[in-house]
Amino acid sequence: SQTIHQWPATLVQPVGSPLSLECTVEGTSNPNLYWYRQAAGRGLQLLFYSVGIGQISSEVPQNLSASRPQDRQFILSSKKLLLSDSGFYLCAWSVGVREGGGYTFGSGTRLTVV
Amino acid sequence: AQSVSQHNHHVILSEAASLELGCNYSYGGTVNLFWYVQYPGQHLQLLLKYFSGDPLVKGIKGFEAEFIKSKFSFNLRKPSVQWSDTAEYFCAVNAGSGYSTLTFGKGTMLLVSP
Q1: What's the gap between Cα A105 and its chain centre?
Q2: Nearest residue on chain B to A6, judged by CA atoms?
Q3: Omega into A69 within 30° of 0, i.e. cis?
Q4: Least packed by Cβ within 10 Å: which of A48, B81, B86, B105?
């Protein structure tokens, strides 16, 4: 069966420090991968998605970047964190729109920038 | 691009009350529609989904949703809520053809009092 792993679960980082959040998927190949940010009262905002290795699409201008070095690995990064980067970050995967496009989400990372 | 509007940010009900959470989407073509639920401290989970066919969709835990194309709506219903239904509920949509990422509403926080 397919599983998605996301870590760390919580992270407290000072302003100006770098960030690396990792997400891996098991039990499937060539998944579509996504990074969302969830903020209270604002729902889920799509940050990046990837339909293949090395292919990254950015939905909104951010102080963040994403990379997909391997088929089932998706990394969210920042060179210098801002206070506004605080939030709950969710990784998700899907097989494709023909299967209905439903996503499976990881457990999330609570990032607090101090 | 598609968008999703959830009418209520917070809903408070007593156990055994009936529930209806509103969801309207904006998109001119065919769509896939979803309701996700996030119980306190847990992952986002798929509650139910609509691709095509019968517009009345039944999901887990006694939830159902009805797709009304003429109203661009996909309201979530449950005849009798339980305390364990306390959670945040998200409506989501993506295009029914081609590749399209999932767009979420801002969520509705449901609190069921025992």
Answers
A1: 10
A2: B43
A3: no
A4: B86
